[in-house]
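REVIEWER CHECKLIST
Item 1: Sequence provided? yes
Item 2: Single chain? yes
Item 3: Sequence as submitted:
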Amino acid sequence: MFGEPGHLYVYFSYGMHYCCNVVTGPKGHGAAVLIRAVEPLDGEETMAELRGDKSGVELTNGPAKTCQALSIDKALNGHKLSTPPLILLPGSLHKDEEIVQTTRIGLSKGTDTPWRFYIKDNPYVSKV
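Item 4: Structure as written out by the authors:
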């Protein structure tokens, strides 16, 4: 999390699941964005195999589910996200989509900070 921006920070949570963050701050400053969920656009068959034949929103509607579906583990910690095997590309919203900003969830401190962003009404959002 204190590394170069644009790299992946992967950690093991609760002794059972991997979670991943995209480092966003300058090197030496701990700043990153937790990837809580993704909407699959391709490769759902492979994701289903990796997730034990789960399907639909159950593939990636949580941080641990996302890592499992994308085969993200400690081996990708520090990975530069502009290089294979995992590349983060800029995207854009579809015509009727909008971003919602809310307070963070799953924390004991800082729950009033509005640092959670997601696409409104997207079924893959974890815990609306």
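Item 5: Key structural point noted by reviewer: The chain is about 10% helix and 20% strand.
Item 6: Recommendation: ____
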